């Protein structure tokens, strides 16, 4: 009986410690997972490239490997406990999200999913995973972006950590295909759409904690983020702060194009997360998460994210982007 009592006491202590940790330290991740498609043909989605019979030969085995690799990345970001919030870009549908949260590495987090199908012509969406034991969901909505062609919606998710209101915006803005200058206007429209929503939100609740994340296909100093959204560098005194700006200025990035690093994945927060009240950021900048097994080194010695595909060629990597994250402490 004494031994049984000791076991019960240790279990209670362990659960109490985890609960205390969950309430006081929170990890928020943003990750472009590079075309996370299932292997089933959907007539409503442009998924013909990602089928077992396609040139890419997207088989169930390759699909499961990608799921397991992505789960490993997400679990390794926060080794003491799984991240509380995960924003994702380039997911096909609800099924791939269900499959991801049920992988061995992520299943202990008991994640719930916020997701809406978007009108994107490639059939890819954004989504947010959250742990309901810590984050109490209030609701979510898809915000349409109309740059003149079908693109991803912006996903707005709101709820509470303890008694503090949080709003998360998951983004995947129009790409740079066709040239940076020629495509800039589409990303400016996305930024204007987001800015309008954020301004309305702040007008209703000046104390709301806001976290904007995703693959904007622009860097912190580009027009869409710096001028239109108004996200300045830490210490610049702006209402919105881009935590990836210091890393971009230092030449770091999340995506490598022809040997040049680009900080396309951004984390923007409201300035009240930089004060000493309630939840606050544990550091003045975000973090790019990368490990050697997620990287590819070419013949020139240049390192880039190890992607899953290059055209029809299967490389077996995780994603062509590195994830970024921030940590909140109370």
Automatic annotation (TrEMBL):
Residue ranges of domain Endonuclease/exonuclease/phosphatase in the record: 27-330
Q: Which InterPro entries match?
A: Endo/exonu/phosph_ase_sf, Endo/exonuclease/phosphatase
Source superkingdom: Bacteria
Name used for this protein in its record: Endonuclease/exonuclease/phosphatase domain-containing protein
Pfam families, alphabetically?
Answer: Exo_endo_phos_3
The organism is Mangrovibacterium marinum
Where is the organism placed in the taxonomic lineage, from the top?
Answer: Bacteria, Pseudomonadati, Bacteroidota, Bacteroidia, Marinilabiliales
Keywords on this record? Signal
Show the Gene3D superfamilies listed in the entry. Answer: Endonuclease/exonuclease/phosphatase
The entry lists its GO molecular-function terms as: catalytic activity
